[in-house]
């Protein structure tokens, strides 16, 4: 059984991305995994300053003392990292990019062995950039791609999307 961290980045608490993340959590907990779900859109997380403090004097710690400090221990302990984001202008939204780029201090989350991606959008066929970034991240973190689930407007909060999520969870 794995320690799963879901980073959900929609500011809409009752939107499609939040639903996908919650369905993932329910299925994973039912299977016996431990799940932490964080809405990063509701946190104060600034972009990386590129100051290199973490790689010099900071010895791995970030100079910015914002809500990312709560996330660092969770990311450090996560064995499965799930990214859940609405598509904004054909890619991850800014609320997800900020915490991902703030992992610069540790470069790779040390225990993450598997990742998964949940995407919500209005239109079909808008996922290439997000999936490409996700796959690069899997490679960079040396994590296996556990699966991608997408939901355009007519697929949101449907039984089929729930089943697709459950399929990803069953392969963890
Ligand atoms: C700033 C912004 C940019 C968006 N850009 C896209 C886009 O490029 N392609 C698309 O299909 N939908 C786009 N959308 C629509 C959202 O991806 C879509 O409504 C999604 O289901 C929202 O998920 P949520 O309810 O979980 O927030 C955009 C929405 C916003 C607010």
Task: List the topology elements.
Layout (H helix, E strand, L loop, with lengths): L2 E6 L7 H15 L3 E6 L28 H10 L2 E7 L7 H8 L12 E7 L7 H13 L3 E8 L7 H12 L2
Parallel strand pairs: 1-2, 1-3, 3-4, 4-5
Helix pairs in contact: 1-5
Bound molecules: flavin mononucleotide.
Keywords:
Rossmann fold; 172 residues; alpha/beta; 5 strands; five-stranded parallel beta sheet; 5 helices; binds flavin mononucleotide
Name the CATH architecture: 3-Layer(aba) Sandwich
What's the total helix number?
5
Please, what is the CATH homologous superfamily? Flavodoxin domain
- What's the arrangement of strands in the largest beta sheet? 2-1-3-4-5
The shape is globular
Elements, N to C (H/E)? EHEHEHEHEH
Distance between the termini: 9 Å
Largest sheet: 5 strands, parallel
Mean pLDDT: 98
- Radius of gyration, whole Å: 15 Å
Helix and strand composition category: alpha/beta
Can you tell me the CATH topology?
Rossmann fold
**Count of discrete structural domains:** 1
Secondary structure: number of strands: 5
User: Spans with pLDDT under 50 lasting ≥5 residues?
Assistant: none
Q: Can you tell me the CATH class?
A: Alpha Beta
Ions, cofactors and other ligands present here are: flavin mononucleotide
Percentage of residues in strands: 15-25%
Written account of the structure:
The chain has 172 residues and is of the alpha/beta class. It has a single domain, classed as Flavodoxin domain (Rossmann fold, 3-Layer(aba) Sandwich), CATH 3.40.50. The chain has 5 helices and 5 strands; from the N terminus they run E-H-E-H-E-H-E-H-E-H. Strands 2-1-3-4-5 form a 5-stranded parallel beta sheet, with helices on both faces. The chain is globular. The mean pLDDT is 98.
